[in-house]
Amino acid sequence: MTDNFKINNTEMRNIRGTNGRRQSVVRRFLPAVMAFFLLTGCGKEGTPSLTKQGMDAVQTLAYEEALDLFGRALEQGEDTRLLYRGMGLAYMGLTRYEEAIVYLEAALHESGGRVEDMDFDINYYLATAYYKNGRAQDAVKAYDAILALRPKEKNAFYLRGYVKLSQNDFEGAKKDFDAAVALDGRDYDQMLRIYTALEEYGYKDTGMVYLQSAMAENEKSISDYDMGRMCYYMGDYENARDYLSRLDTTKEYGAALYLGRTYEALGDYNYASGIYASYTENDQSKAEIYNQLGLCRMRMKEYTQALEAFQAGMNIEDNGMMQTLKFNEIVAYEYMGDYKTAAALMNSYLKTYPDDAAAGREYEFLRTR
């Protein structure tokens, strides 16, 4: 889930982008952890068919269907632990976090005292559910449990630091961020997550120090791509453009994404859209590129082309950002003046994402048109 990408209200109401500098870190990265373990979570070979069907349904966001399949699997005596885990994920997808917690905790208790790989991914899910349910201290304890057994789990350090930061524990958060960086000073993805978290909570200068240190300490080994995107996040768009322009943006996904974003930040949406469009000529598998292309078209008031871009992204299987694309599709219909279609799609959207308050407000607007 991503936050609203705000455009001047007289020009456009709400549209959602993937610009990390304007996103809620918890919305952007905790769900990413969930998606990672959903795809890689451990299970026994030959998982019974109903359990597998349920997990497939979770991946396609068909959470009610997944719960039905898991319930039938329980009746047939399939692996209880896997099913409790799956039910926890389905309830998380439905934003019913209290029920998710019940099942995820039950999945942990099914371990019989043996710590397995599955326990770690369940704890990651559980931490997310605790946090979403307003139980930040329990989320911290879940990360504590991970780190007690895997003291070099840098992602747990980062996430625990984020939760602490959200609770105004800057010193505790910084200690965790420092520990994550110490484990891998060349993990630039992690460095950018730390920067974005600190920026979100008003500690941008501290975040800048992390990026500046990484750039200075790795000056001889850092790639043009990593230098370019760090310059982008720091707001140094001229240097970001220079570094990223050295790369083949027609074939290199990251280069195309960040150079396009850089031109967007510089206000040149036409050039940015050209970068995205050129990339899609060689690779039609990156939903984020299509989303950014749609955003540029929206900026240029080319709403039909924007809609086509969002829908192209939606047609990519397991695209990882269906919620953003669906929301932006609705906005495109709205700006094309097709309020009936926009309202119908928003009604369906809210059934899948009931905790999206901004979408709820938008729906009320659409119902009056």
> Tally the helices: what do you get?
20
Radius of gyration: 21 Å
The N- and C-terminal alpha carbons lie at a distance of 27 Å
What spatial order of strands do you see in the largest sheet?
Answer: 1-2
Would you give an account of this structure?
This protein has helices at 25-40, 49-59, 63-75, 80-93, 97-109, 117-132, 136-149, 154-166, 170-183, 188-200, 204-217, 224-233, 237-244, 253-265, 269-282, 287-299, 303-314, 322-335, 339-352, 357-367; strands at 4-5, 15-16. 70% of the residues lie in helices and 1% in strands. Strands 1-2 form a two-stranded antiparallel ribbon. It is mainly alpha-helical and 369 residues long.
Topology:
Layout: E1 4-5, E2 15-16, H1 25-40, H2 49-59, H3 63-75, H4 80-93, H5 97-109, H6 117-132, H7 136-149, H8 154-166, H9 170-183, H10 188-200, H11 204-217, H12 224-233, H13 237-244, H14 253-265, H15 269-282, H16 287-299, H17 303-314, H18 322-335, H19 339-352, H20 357-367
Antiparallel strand pairs: 1-2
Helix pairs in contact: 1-6, 2-3, 2-4, 3-4, 4-5, 5-6, 6-7, 7-8, 8-9, 8-10, 10-11, 12-13, 12-14, 13-14, 14-15, 14-16, 15-16, 16-17, 16-18, 17-18, 18-19, 19-20
